[in-house]
Design brief:
Blueprint: H1 5-8, H2 11-23, H3 32-49, H4 57-60, H5 64-67, H6 69-73, H7 75-87, H8 120-123, H9 127-130, E1 139-145, H10 152-165, E2 174-178, H11 186-189, H12 197-203, H13 210-216, E3 218-219, E4 225-227, H14 241-254, E5 257-261, H15 271-276, E6 277-284, H16 288-304, E7 310-315, H17 325-334, E8 340-342, H18 346-355, H19 359-362, H20 367-377
Parallel strand pairs: 1-5, 1-6, 2-4, 2-5, 6-7, 7-8
Antiparallel strand pairs: 3-4
Helix pairs in contact: 3-7, 10-20, 12-13
The protein binds adenosine-5'-diphosphate (ADP) and magnesium ion.
Length: 380
């Protein structure tokens, strides 16, 4: 049963899930349409009220509102959500199927709409940025990937932990945010069950304030602050640029470093992140198809943020003694040297996931962890 979902989730969550299964009310599968409807209902309710209420902390910490099985199964609820959908302008509600879900792998992809088309600064006043108490003191590190399964989340989690531990003996505040909204695994890698913080922030009809954002964070034993991805997939447009900017600015004001595990899709709300990033790590293997996707992603990012500093992390491969011709060619294509390599270690990587314990903690002296420490050292 080592690959059972229960093996990888926290003990508390396993117990709760087991109880629900016994009672025959497991909420393991909830239709996507309902998540979309719940988010839209929350936003529409805010619009109708015409108010911009400050979020009560209880709201942030009450994922039950979203996850309650009874809500999912109640036909009246479904009807209500249909009414809300009918009353919301179509432009506000792109169909789920129309949303980007992954970097287009086809050889001749349709042009990706420029992320810059979202003029974040022009849309509304910026309450968080305007607050002098929230001046940024932290550094933002983004983690992207050329293809699924290459080790980006593993890298992001261990990078965050590494940044925590280079505390030069003094406590260093580090947060990790999982913006892979649909299939994020930062929480489960750390044996943390999502408490609904990010979903609650997405449901607000206004920019979340600093109190709501801090209340949404979960603590990990290591000292990391974690904002896990929603437990159930939500549409990518559950977030928007203003909201993402608010979340990141609030976290940067109270942490020394913030690591963001990016979604595989190119969405407009990445723009504020690209502009604030100290560095973007592109995790990739060296297959032609992966390099092709990495290039497309980096080209799109650089179009919006020409000054973005990029580092390539070659995942699942040991650094060769000498760079070959193919390595030089890849470095030219990506416009970056292949400086960092993380060796292939499937058994230990798997064990770390199953234990919910980052590799850096489980095997601090292994080659993989040494690679992480070197990268972290280069950021000091
Ligand atoms: N260096 C590595 N060697 C072998 N397997 C790895 C390595 N890094 C990660 N993995 C495994 O690869 C799988 C995908 O890792 P993950 O970090 O979730 O990738 P991504 O975020 O790029 O989709 C996981 O099972 C993980 O344990
Ligand atoms: Mg991932």
């Amino acid at each position: 049963m080592s690959d059972s979902i229960f093996f990888r989730t926290s003990r508390a969550e396993r117990d709760t899930a087991a109880m629900r299964d016994v009672e025959g009310t497991s909420d393991a599968v909830i239709p996507l349409a309902l998540h979309r409807a719940q988010i839209d209902m929350a936003k529409a309710a805010g619009r109708e009220a015409g108010a911009m209420p400050r979020p009560a902390p209880a709201q942030v910490q009450a994922p039950a509102q979203v996850q309650a099985p009874a809500q999912v199964q109640a036909p009246a609820q479904v009807q209500a959500s249909a009414q809300v959908q009918a009353s919301v302008p179509v432009a506000d509600m792109p169909a789920f199927a129309e949303m980007p879900t992954a970097p287009a792998p086809s050889p001749a992809p349709a042009p990706i709409p420029a992320i810059a088309s979202v003029q974040v600064a022009d849309q509304t006043p910026a309450p968080l940025a305007a607050d002098p108490a929230l001046r940024s003191r932290g550094r933002l590190y983004l983690v992207s990937r050329s293809r699924g399964g290459v080790g980006a989340t593993t890298f992001a989690v261990n990078l965050a932990l590494g940044l925590c531990r280079t505390a030069q003996k003094s406590a260093r505040r580090v947060a990790i945010v999982d913006l892979d909204l649909q299939f994020g695994t930062v929480g489960s890698s750390l044996d943390l069950a999502d408490k609904g913080g990010l979903l609650a922030l997405a449901q607000l009809d206004h920019e979340p304030d600093v109190h709501a954002i801090r209340a949404a964070l979960q603590s990990h034993d290591s000292g990391l602050s974690v904002l896990p991805a929603p437990r159930h997939p939500v549409p990518l447009d559950a977030l928007d640029a203003l909201r993402v900017r608010s979340i990141i600015d609030a976290l940067l004001s109270s942490h020394d470093a913030v690591v963001v595990d990016l979604p595989p899709a190119l969405v407009d709300w990445l723009e504020p992140l690209l502009h604030r990033a100290e560095r973007l790590f592109m995790v990739t293997d060296l297959a032609v198809t992966s390099i092709d996707c990495a290039k497309r992603i980096l080209d799109t990012f650089r179009e919006d943020a020409p000054d973005l500093r990029v580092e390539i992390i070659v995942g699942r491969e040991k650094k060769p003694l000498f760079a070959g011709k193919v390595h030089r060619e890849i470095a030219t294509v990506l416009d970056q040297p292949l400086r960092h390599w993380l060796p292939f270690d499937p058994k230990r990587a798997r064990l770390a996931l199953d234990r919910g314990e980052p590799l850096l903690k489980m095997l601090p002296h292994g080659a993989w962890s040494r690679g992480i420490r070197k990268i972290v050292g280069g950021l000091e």
